[in-house]
Amino acid sequence: MNDTPHASGSTRSTRSTDSRRATSPTSALRPDEPLSVAAHAKTEAGADTVADVLVVGAGPTGLLLAGDLAAAGLRVTLAERRPHGISNMTRAFGVHARTLEMLDARGLADELIKRGTTVDHMDMFGHINLDMTRLRSRFPFLLVSPQYEMEQLLERRAVAEGVQFRYGARLLNLRQDGEGVTAELRESGGGGGDGDGSNDGEQHVTLRARYLVGADGVHSGVREALGLPFPGAAVIRSIILADVRLATEPDAMLKLSGSGNSFAVVAPFGDGYHRVMGWNRKHQVSDTEPVDLDELRAIATEAFGTDYGMHDARWISRFHSDERQTSSYRVGRAFLAGDAAHVHSPAGGQGMNTGLQDAANLSWKLIAALRGRGADPDALLDSYQAERHPVGTMVLRSSGALIRLAMAHNPLQRAGRSLAVRVLDLVRPVSDKAMRMISGLDISYRAERGSHPLAGKRAIDLDLAEGRLYELLRRGEFVLVTSRDGRTVAPQGVVAAHWRSGRGSTLLVRPDGYVAWASEGPDPAGLHAALARWTGHE
Fold this sequence. Notes:
8-stranded mixed β-sheet, alpha+beta, globular, single chain, 26% strand
């Protein structure tokens, strides 16, 4: 984590601190009224603080979510069990195209790209070279960037937007009622908001919020407190990860290969170090067993035919990977996101990306519910489960298929892998589909029967009269794209945009970059209904 956060380059609008903390003499909370402006009327006795949303977990998912909420003027507290300044050294290192589009909608993508290395081709098993330049996106590549870079970027944004951080804070219990959530935490090292760790000892605090989101990882305290099961099992054990220097550069920037008993992946960070991952079927030990570079060298040699002269490991670790998913992403006023809701194999590098996209889906819905926008705010919050749970299941299956492909051992399995690789190599539509799936560009959400074919689909970065669509999405609002004839006026709180050409179609794009409603021609009644349903405006 970043020890000295400073202002972020986010361009989303932020209400003043005074307006976020304004109070009112009213004694009851309206559904459309943030808790922070209700004079703490429904706060339980003894609660230490009041927030609109309490986010538990300051990994990438929690940081993105908290930053979005605070940028909308909500009062947000983020509790993290790690002390401030302790890096979250995890296995994530790839940022896919759809995640970069979502960061672009927050003015953050270009900065992260400058810190990493872009990879537009991937060598698999020495027989197939996936060409990511064919992706229809402003970001037709995989960005190789360690997770801590993502966290530093998102933390600076969250700090700049006014998120209150409580480091060294572990969730003990939570309870809900009709007005909010009360969370009991144990803080160590003087968590209290500045996170400088200057105070010793522990203290118990009680925090109160309208909603709570658990983004606290695979061992989620929020999920445990909600009593939700996390069914599944380990899919692969004793994987070794290391960041090393190489004496010889691989012939492909991102390379994956395997033998019958091992597989390995190597990718560049761009700073002279490479991330290397390796697994050996014949050496399965617990995560706590010592690991050294010689063990990884042996795996790489078996998988690639060389260890590329790896040396000077700055970090090395052993871990196992589970496949698990909880059944419910929402329980009342509490939500789960990221690894707290689903965890899967590292194949395809989809874990961190899926969590960030969970956050992007949930944040605007919480904002709408707290502002009383939309025809049915509670149904809108339910749609988080309806939309993101199937995505988690899909990623679980696709990453599982990829890891099992890499682990193919017996002759029948290896023959199947050879066939799959050959199909990917020779049948372009199949390889293009696979890249769109892994990159997140093919993710869509189910629309109502009779909706326009674009409804629920990802909106591409349209070049509009007012600028790029994803630049307009930085305002955190719906974007209404219409013809330039001036006959359609966007209501307050909806960003108006127009086609550069003479197109007569209409698009209503959600804050997360998916199409809410579309029409090929003028449809005032349909647009009126869509605006009322999605935004609360007519």
